[in-house]
Amino acid sequence: MTAPARLSTTDIPNGRTASRPVPSLATRAGDLLASEWTKFRSVRSTYWTLLVALVTPIGFSALVATAFAGAPASAGPPPDPLLPEVLSLEYAVIAVSVLGVLAFSAEYSTGLIRTTFTAAPRRRAVLAAKAAVYGAVTLAAGELVAFASFGVSQAILSGHHQGVSLSGPGVPGAVLAAGILLCVCTLLGVALGSIIRHTAGGIVATVAVIVLPSILGLLPAPWSGRVGRFTLLDAARQVTALHPAANLFSPGWSLLVLLAWPAAALAAAAILITRRDA
Amino acid sequence: MIEVDGLTKRFGPVTAVDGLSFTVRPGHVTGFLGPNGAGKTTTMRVILGLDAPTSGRATVGGRRYDGLIRPLREVGSLLDATALHGGRTAWTHLLSIAQSNGIASKRVSEVLRLTGLEGVARRRVKGFSLGMKQRLGIAAALLGDPPVLMFDEPVNGLDPEGIHWIRGFFKTLAAEGRTVLVSSHLMSEMAQTADHLVIIGHGRLLADLPTAELIENSARRDVLLRSPRAAELAGLIAARGGAVTPQDDGALVVTGLDAAAIGDLAAAHGIAVHALVPRQASLEDAYLDLTEESTDYHGGTVTR
């Protein structure tokens, strides 16, 4: 490979002492964010999962809008032009869940987590930095998808006089709220990936936490609403719908429910991450 | 300086490290030796704050690892060279580690050059040989230019040239006044690298001494003897109090008499001697003696 003589360490600066100014908390937080950002952008899975998360909902919303637009007039317009079925963000849930889970599971399965924790022994700070990077990117991606899906589907529907305008009452807020779903699912994945430490297990757990409670929503009324109002996907629909369902929480409370899921998972991850050996 | 004090680590019913205490001083390459499963890696993981000790403590420069701010500037370590994300390049792998401790990217280029990896910096580590991964791990350990360095089995997977390089590398690091702890299960490897040894077995300290002292202290010294009148000479040696063990190939191994005494004895009786070789237990033998004892040792620890 290289001649040993070239590999001498004589040019390593030496003689440093322990008396070094302690960097500020902000500096250290910035260091960790920069590190996690480098990790995030330097693996292919990031780009694949984000590509799927971006393309699938936009494609599906075009299909759904076309289906509504092409339906006979007697079928009427879509009941709510902002329903998740129209914006189709739910089709990105699995992709971003995988993205979130991999944040930790990829490091645990390769053993890289030990390098990470030796470089940054404050493990909760690592969790926070990963959550910030993954959360910020998927929030941006989610909003991009929400507005793009809205634009595409409404362009198709308005050709058939069934669309709504982005300037309509409550519309911008509803589209913005719709975009949160991807970030919520990613953060849930980040938390469960750090708890389960295993990629397949983490993905199964994350998708189960997102989807399984919705099955309880199939209970007969009034239980469907009483239980369903606490589920992640029903909360996501409620914050998006232009005409919120009467049997669920108000959109404001539903937004809290939506955010409570990843918040609770991240809190559990923060407790467990320092309690277990890496 | 690394200090391990009364360290015990249990995993369920298994005691991996059992009341282990030792100090690793700067300016030396200290070999951390023990058979597989002796508790070397666990000890290193506790020092690095990855595993919580069941009892006892480990400090680096007087402080617990998890209390260090920007720890890579205090301690460089390599536990498992294959613990990499294969999709990253050597550059991005090192950059992400450097950034976490506020280390400039210029230093990433430096350590890549120091370890001879600059030519493959932009290649995905998936395609790296084990030797290249070891170099990459050593590069990561050097990022913070730390005064304390720890390497777990760093020689595994290196080719002879790489082994030669790494020995010189450790010695240079120690000569610069750094504390260097290198684990291995191979005594032969440590004999040529370490000038101080910490030997453990079953999680307990067996020896903590300079490498040279281990050889001197070794009880096994004997003389290999070949003679055409071996049987006759054996009788004479036995009469003088020496113990003779005949070998399959006709040679004799003598203990209790040194080579000079045997030579004089043979000359006095006019017996030709074809070979007279004073033998000292190799470091490997001394090490095996120690670790064999550890298997049926019940009680405290053997030091010195």
Summarize the structure.
The complex is a heterodimer of chains A (278) and B (304). Helices cover 70% and strands 0% of the residues of chain A.
3D architecture notes:
Chain A has one domain (26-275). Helices cover 70% and strands 0% of the residues of chain A. Chain A contains 11 helices and no strands. Chain A is mainly alpha-helical. The radius of gyration of chain B is 24 Å and the shape is elongated. Chain B folds into 2 domains: 2-212, 3-Layer(aba) Sandwich (Rossmann fold), CATH 3.40.50; 221-280, Alpha-Beta Plaits (2-Layer Sandwich). Helix content of chain B is 34%, strand content 26%. Chain B has helices at residues 40-47, 90-100, 105-114, 130-142, 160-175, 187-191, 211-217, 230-239, 259-268, 283-295; strands at residues 2-11, 14-24, 29-33, 55-60, 75-78, 148-152, 179-184, 196-201, 204-210, 221-226, 243-246, 252-255, 275-280. In chain B, the strands form 3 sheets. Chain B has a 6-stranded mixed sheet, with helices on both faces. Chain B has a 4-stranded antiparallel sheet with strand order 11-12-10-13, with helices on one face. A 3-stranded antiparallel sheet of chain B has the order 2-1-4, with helices on one face. By secondary structure, chain B is of the alpha/beta class. At the A-B interface, α1, α4 and α5 of A face α2, α4 and α5 of B.
Topology:
The complex is a heterodimer of chains A (278) and B (304).
Chain A: H1 25-41, H2 44-70, H3 84-87, H4 93-110, H5 112-119, H6 123-158, H7 171-196, H8 199-216, H9 223-228, H10 232-240, H11 251-275
Helix pairs in contact in A: 1-6, 2-4, 2-6, 4-5, 4-7, 4-8, 6-7, 7-8, 7-10, 7-11, 10-11
Chain B: E1 2-11, E2 14-24, E3 29-33, H1 40-47, E4 55-60, E5 75-78, H2 90-100, H3 105-114, H4 130-142, E6 148-152, H5 160-175, E7 179-184, H6 187-191, E8 196-201, E9 204-210, H7 211-217, E10 221-226, H8 230-239, E11 243-246, E12 252-255, H9 259-268, E13 275-280, H10 283-295
Parallel strand pairs in B: 3-7, 3-8, 5-6, 6-7
Antiparallel strand pairs in B: 1-2, 1-4, 8-9, 10-12, 10-13, 11-12
